[in-house]
Amino acid sequence: MASGDVETLEELNDVFHTWITAFYHTRRHGSTGVSPEERAALTNRKPRRVPEAELNEVFYWQEERKVDKTGCVSLQGSQFEVASELVGAKVQLRYDPFDLSVIQVWRDDQRWDDARTIDLTRRHDRRVQPESSVQGETDPGVSIFDALKERKRQASEGLQFSAVKDGEPQ
Q1: What Pfam family does this protein match (any one) (predicted)?
Q2: Which of 60, 80, 97, 104 might form a disulfide with 125, Cβ 3.0–4.6 angstroms?
Q3: Over the stretch 119-143, which tens digit does the pLDDT of each residue have?
């Protein structure tokens, strides 16, 4: 994140979970008049768990390519071989921009066998930085995420009467 408070995916997940539980779920919605937490308590529906692999595919990038006469497509300077039945056809390539070793091939909303790598010149899309090379600058300013974490911690611990002085928590 821009402030440098969050440097890893694990930290991002932690911050997001804290924000969701300490702020979003407890705040009243303008249209319904109740918080998401209260609304969820009124239903018997259970949340649907999505397998991680399926969830990852939602974020895949997509590129359209025409399969050449040799049954190959190029992506980011790398060459891939696809099913020979697709020669001359336009196909959609779906991929994780951080890992170009696996390329899904789609045509007319039908998934074909993944493309086979012929020549992988790049491990990641040139428009992204691999996680190991991302460097953030730290900002010593106040972080809303730290404040939310502290609020959640205090709520989970409850009020300790020994910490109250002159009617105010210390």
Answers
A1: Mu-transpos_C
A2: 97
A3: 999 999 999 987 665 555 444 555 6
